[in-house]
Amino acid sequence: MNKVIAIGDIHGSTKWRNIIDGNKDAQIVFLGDYLDPYVEYDCDEILDNLIEIIDFKRNNKDRVVLLLGNHDLHYISSDAEICTRFDFRIARKAGILFIENFKLFQYAFQLKDIIFTHAGISQRWFEKDFKGNIEHNIADQLNNPTDNQIEALCRIGAGRGGEEGRVGGIFWADRSELKDPLHGFTQVVGHNRVEDITKWVYPDDNKIIFCDCLENGKYFEMHI
């Protein structure tokens, strides 16, 4: 069996280093949000931490996955919604880092029936809004959206200040919008802060595991 480690939202923290040091042979999945810390960091420290993560991926391409989160998109595209704590001091340099290394990042990752995204996938959003095909590989569809799917992919739902009645896409979905996650799959997500790794189990052979607790030194480990 192969060990898989999921590391929740980074937000400038260097605690990920200790995790990878103790799991040298594991598949490592970063769940996104590398910048915009909750506490004050020096600008160079924030950028150096992102550079170190990118270098770690570049040197371990087969076993490291870098997902993107909502706090990353707003440095990449001027069309992305500006999130709280957007740092204008580093915006230009951060944007260059993301764009120059964009091929090292992805939107989703899948191992069998386990799907990793930043914020999660609801059944309703996938079927009605994204118009995905449940019979095909989910991550492939999310990583290669058509022009007609991009708006839904980046959508902000009502739980995070979007239009009432809307469900957020994989960068923005709030836990209140994940009451019926994608049927038949286990999802591993960040975005929604928790004190410790938290699992929700549903009746349609679907589970969702919340991992945004790196600030407490917590991370998710599984064997596949």
TrEMBL record:
Write one Pfam family the protein is assigned to. Answer: Metallophos
Signal peptide coordinates: none
Calcineurin-like phosphoesterase domain spans which residues?
A: 3-136
Per its UniProt entry, which superkingdom is the organism in? Bacteria
Q: Could you tell me what this protein is called?
A: Metallophosphoesterase
Which source organism? Answer: Bacteroides caecicola
